[in-house]
Amino acid sequence: HVQLVESGGGLVPIGGSLRLSCAASGYSAVTLCMGWFRQAPGKEREGVATMARGGSASLADSVKGRFTISRDNAKNALYLQMNSLKPEDTAMYYCAANPYDAVCRSFDIQGFPYWGQGTQVTVS
């Protein structure tokens, strides 16, 4: 059984910063490709950032220059540093993993079989 657990969400003022964490357990291969997705009320879930085990990363245009994705393979952990936060960043943030995509550049939600419960980020 594979588990992904997010942490670090909370209330943040406009222009503030927040760091999200995701811990994976149960099967090491699940971390071949990991990413962050978010979903605001009334909107579809969208990709934010992904990173392969080798460090190759992809960021959504809306967060480039403000967010940074990183990972610690020894801990099977994924992180998202969010700076210069805007009200539009308010959403439930989810950690996801795809053990079948070594390239790890896709934001296709259906391609990620493992998901965490999410952590709420509110910017006001």
What does this entry look like structurally?
The chain has 124 residues and is mostly beta strands. The protein is built from no helices and eleven strands. Strands 2, 4, 5, 6, 9, 10 and 11 form a seven-stranded mixed sheet that branches. A four-stranded antiparallel sheet has the order 1-3-8-7, with no helix packed on it. The relative contact order is 0.32. The model has no long low-confidence stretch (mean pLDDT 94).
What topology emerges from the helices and strands here?
Elements: E1 3-7, E2 10-12, E3 18-25, E4 33-39, E5 46-52, E6 57-59, E7 67-72, E8 77-82, E9 91-98, E10 114-115, E11 119-123
Q: How much of the polypeptide forms β-strand, as a percent range? A: over 45%
What's the total count of β strands?
A: 11
- Termini, distance in Å? 37 Å
| Number of continuous helical runs | 0
Largest sheet: 7 strands, mixed
Mean pLDDT: 94
Short description:
The protein is built from no helices and eleven strands.
Brief descriptors of the model:
single chain, 124 residues, mainly beta, 7-stranded mixed β-sheet, 4-stranded antiparallel β-sheet, 11 strands, globular
